Amino acid sequence: MKTLLSVIAVENKKLVRSYVLWGTLALYLFVCAIRAGEGDWNTYLGNVVFMFSSVLGLVGFAVLTSWAFGREYADRTLKDLLALPMSRGKVVAAKVAASFVWCLILTEITFLFSLFIGLMAGIPNFSKTMVLHYFIQLLIVTAINLLLCGPVVFLASLSRGYLVPITYAFATLMVALIAGPTELSRYLPWGIPALQFAGSSSAVFPLASISYFIVAITGAAGFAATWAWWRWADHK
């Protein structure tokens, strides 16, 4: 456990010192700030959470997680990393943990920033109950999108870089947008975050169990494939 925590700390430093992390945060804050003049608090926070259920979640999280894995290949530091006295499984776990924690931190910072901007802009009809509702839904769609990063980290490892996984993220976003109005969307992993938010006015978890199961299987398969690739396939 001590070794794993040490590796997580190292991966955390890599992310903190990267332009990708702070560039992503700057983009999140900018996008939310320019939506502050739209309607009341219900409309404004709804737009913020919807963006995280789609582009900011599917693509933004993919950028961070794919960079955490792909940079080792792009910077040619992978051999040095694998030469360290630790298992490859711990390396994978540390990269996933560090990138996931930062995705969550960026999400919470953006939400707090949105509240600050909204208050400064004097958006009408503020309600603590409404803020809590949207915050809970934001955490749920964030968790779903983090699970959907499983295939992203596998593609980053398989392709030895971050171009392919980022392309994959944009492709899944397009599929989600196209299939969104159809019945098929509830069975497509990438369309489920938006459906979760769309139905949140009726229930905290408005979708059928099969939708959440599909997300869980997709994430688990991606992370398991990543671990297997680092453990057996890579550098043979």
From TrEMBL:
Keyword Signal carried by entry: no
Protein name: Bacitracin ABC transporter permease
Organism: Paenibacillus woosongensis
Keywords: Membrane, Transmembrane, Transmembrane helix
PANTHER family: INTEGRAL MEMBRANE PROTEIN-RELATED, MEMBRANE PROTEIN
Positions of transmembrane segments: 20-37, 49-70, 91-119, 131-155, 162-180, 210-230
Lineage: Bacteria, Bacillati, Bacillota, Bacilli, Bacillales
Pfam families listed in its UniProt record: ABC2_membrane_4 (PF12730)
